[in-house]
Amino acid sequence: MIDIKKELKDFQEFKKNYIFKQNEIEEINGKKYCKGEPLINEEGETIGDCDKWINVGYKNKGPYAKVLSNLFPYDFKFRDKTLKSIESFFQGIKFKDINMQNLVFTYSGLDANRIKACNNYDWKETGTLYFQGKEINRYSKEYDDLVDELYISANTKSII
């Protein structure tokens, strides 16, 4: 059994010490490259990944780009809830009503993303999101911890 609290503590320590360095994008003859690899293929589609980098996106070409996207559909357990994708969480927490939130958690990928059209609540105005009836400030450590725990739960694959 995975100890989520220990994993969360270890991850937060890693984040505290991590220094991100953006890879440079260069343009050569009107085409964009990252570390010498093209970002766009001959058909004009974005290349999702290569041996040197990954450009996460559900519509990108490449074996890892889709899997790392919030839209990638897979089931995992998070705080006794079964989620169908990371995206279902991020769309669900925009709903104050617990029943609606739980319903959104059952959607995966693009379906979860599209549900935002059914909600006229603009969390950006208030900075308030909800998880199972509790208000959470989007700009708080509590929110950051919740999201860290979400990704750890998905990554450790608390599979049902």
What percent of residues adopt helix (DSSP H or I)? 25-40%
Order of helices and strands: HEEEEEHHHHEEH
Structural class: alpha+beta
Major beta sheet, strand line-up: 1-2-3
Largest sheet, described in full?
3 strands, antiparallel
Number of discrete helical segments: 6
Radius of gyration: 18 Å
Which residue ranges are poorly predicted, with pLDDT under 50 across at least 5 consecutive positions?
A: none
Instruction: Based on Cα principal axes, name the global outline.
Output: globular
Beta strand % = 15-25%
Instruction: Give the integer mean of the pLDDT values.
Output: 89
How far apart are the first and last residues' alpha carbons, in Å?
A: 13 Å
Write down how many β-strands occur, each being a DSSP E stretch of 2 or more residues: 7
Please give the domain count. Answer: 2
Plain-language structure description:
This protein has 160 residues and is an alpha+beta fold. The chain folds into two domains: 24-69, no CATH class; 76-155, no CATH class. 34% of the residues lie in helices and 15% in strands. It has helices at 4-17, 86-92, 98-105, 109-114, 123-126, 141-155, and strands at residues 25-28, 31-34, 37-38, 76-78, 81-83, 128-131, 134-137.
